[in-house]
Amino acid sequence: MLNGLERFQNTRAGVLADSIAALVNPLPYLLLAAVVVVIAASSRGLRGAAAVVFVLAAANITTQHLKPTLAAPRDSLQVDAASWPSGHSTAAMALALCAVIAAPSIGRRAVAAAGALLALAVGVSVVLLGWHYPSDALGGFLIASSFACLAVAGLELSSGPPGCQSGSRRRWRPARG
After folding, report:
1. What pTM did the predictor assign?
2. Among 37, 83, 28, 82, which residue's Cα sits nearest to residue 56?
3. What pLDDT, on the 0 to 100 scale, is given for residue 27?
4. SS3 per residue for the chain
5. Is residue 169 domain-resident?
6. Tens of pLDDT along 142-171?
7. What average pLDDT does the structure give for the chain?
8. What is the rounded CA–CA span in Å between residue 53 and residue 34?
9. How many Cα neighbours within 13 Å face the side chain of 46?
10. Measured between alpha carbons, how far is 91 from 76 in angstroms, rounded to an integer?
11. More confident: 136 or 84
12. In-domain check, residue 164
């Protein structure tokens, strides 16, 4: 499968994949993350913004520490030994999930769909470019998702029981389906 995808690296698909993966390079990522934090602060209050910062920082730091710790020789000459989990995939999924946390409930489904497309596009791009195996991208998705789950649980616990006024006026409310 990887050998088949590598044929697309020097085509328009490869150029597009490179552009998509570049969305989560440090500078564009910091700008996008800042927007999400500001939205979280305005829609969810300081706890929501703190939850978003937690996910963005914890997921990406964890990934960067796991890469050298779990480095193992790969069968591919192109995929680096320290490639699990994918940092690009972690960053994209963390950003997508944080946008869902930050979004007002009325727009949360649309934000979730757009975020899923972004994360999937980045995951496919890093595989197409030969930077990662599919398992590397999935590993990044799982790390980001784990920290997002912890953040949502923290928001839920910090808001107190229903009807309790000890929590913020902007209580986290999961989307009703």
Report:
1. 0.83
2. 37
3. 96
4. CHHHHHCCCCCHHHHHHHHHHHCCCHHHHHHHHHHHHHHHHHHHHHHHHHHHHHHHHHHHHHHHHHHHHCCCCCCCCCCCCCCCCCHHHHHHHHHHHHHHHHCCHHHHHHHHHHHHHHHHHHHHHHHHCCCCCHHHHHHHHHHHHHHHHHHHHHHHHHCCCCCCCCCCCCCCCCCCC
5. no
6. 999 999 999 999 999 887 666 555 444 455
7. 86
8. 9
9. 2
10. 24
11. 136
12. no
Q: How many domains does the chain have?
A: 1
Tell me what pLDDT residue 70 has.
Answer: 79
Does residue 167 sit within a domain? no
- Residue 60 CB neighbours (<10 A): 22
Beta carbons of 24 and 152 less than 8 angstroms apart: no
CA 94 to chain centroid: 2
Residue 23 belongs to domain spanning: 2-69+82-158
Tokens of 32: 């996008």
What six digits make up the tokens of 137? 């991208």
- 175: left (phi > 0), else alpha (psi -120 to 50), else beta? beta
d(CA 173, CA 99): 14
Tell me the percentage of the chain whose pLDDT exceeds 90: 61
In a domain, 86, yes or no: yes
pLDDT in tens, 79-105: 666 677 999 999 999 999 999 999 998
